[in-house]
Write a structure and sequence with these properties.
The protein contains 12 helices and 8 strands. The protein is of the alpha/beta class. It has 2 domains: 195 residues, Glycoside hydrolase/deacetylase (TIM Barrel, Alpha-Beta Barrel); 82 residues. α12 links the parallel β6 and β7.
Length: 297
């Protein structure tokens, strides 16, 4: 059985406490371990004949650490990979809310961030946070559960975005400077492309799939593909849906597949856990990098 491994942040956990990154050292260790059983390939090579099962290293969101850490290690070892592009931050200068949340939780400790929230918003916003324990029970810190619930559910998207953009811009000097440091830029994508990395479509603004497949394609997929064509002269052939499609993942797989195939896409990597069969369905399963040691390789 073939394998696709899913990566997001590849940076030191102590420096990025707002999420669950894999450290560069651990990333390199994973490559060495996987190489004992798998042959690393690009997505286009999944069906080629090999002596060992095949493995594709996949990366979502195009954050700068993927270029500075993951790509640097892969280039040194001669390992190919598949990196997805999120065009919104580069074109529209707008950062997805969840990246703002991860950044704020990494820049400030929980007490500092809680104090900033209390200084900004009326006490009525803090009265009903009981749902935090159900949704974010995996967080050891009760205060962090409340912070995440407040930012993602209690506050309006506009309130949450304005608060996060303000405190992050204050740390980086401006939103543009934050984007420069947070995301892979055009020149870096070009270096990766020339080094043999596959670049595919992720999204514009990281919205999960909505019930209207064509509308979703026109707003979240096609503009990103056009960005790849215009700025990097790449014909998009691979896709990775944000959040694996979200709560409507099954409907996405049914309604979006024919649209993507008609536009020349060869396949898409989702967040459903599992191996890739030799028959290779259009929707390809992956294993999260943080779960590699819990599965039998």
């Amino acid at each position: 059985m073939n394998l696709a491994v899913m990566y997001h942040y590849v940076k030191e956990p102590a420096e990025w406490t707002g999420s669950v990154p894999v450290s560069p050292k651990e990333f390199e260790n994973q490559i060495d371990r996987l190489a004992k059983k798998f042959e690393f390939v690009a997505p286009d090579e999944l069906m080629k004949k090999t002596l060992k099962p095949k493995c594709v290293l996949t990366f979502d969101d195009a954050t700068k650490d993927q270029y500075e850490n993951a790509f640097a290690i892969m280039k040194k070892k001669g390992v190919p990979g598949y990196f997805t592009v999120m065009s919104g931050p580069l074109v529209e200068k707008k950062v997805p809310i969840f990246h703002l949340v991860h950044t704020a939780l990494s820049l400030f400790n929980d007490s500092e961030l809680w104090e900033k929230l209390n200084d900004r918003f009326d006490r009525s916003k803090f009265e009903n946070l009981i749902g935090a324990h159900q949704i974010y029970g995996y967080e050891k810190s009760e205060l962090r559960r409340y912070i995440k619930y407040l930012l993602n559910f209690t506050l309006t998207p506009q309130e949450s975005r304005k608060f996060l953009e303000d405190i992050i811009a204050a740390e980086f000097g401006s939103s543009d400077k934050f984007i420069e440091q947070m995301y892979i830029n055009i020149n870096e994508f070009e270096i990766m492309r020339k080094a043999g990395m596959t670049l595919g479509v992720h999204c514009v603004s990281h919205k999960p799939f909505s019930h209207d497949a064509m509308n979703y394609y026109k707003n979240e997929i096609e503009p990103c593909a056009q960005f790849l064509a215009d700025r990097l002269q790449i014909k998009a052939e691979w896709y990775t849906p944000p959040f694996g499609g979200g709560v409507e993942a099954q409907r996405m797989k049914k309604d979006l597949k024919s649209i993507l195939i008609n536009e020349g896409y060869k396949g898409a990597f989702v967040t459903t856990e599992g191996f890739i069969s030799e028959k290779q369905d259009f929707w390809l399963k992956r294993v999260d990098c943080n779960k590699l040691y819990s599965i039998s390789l």
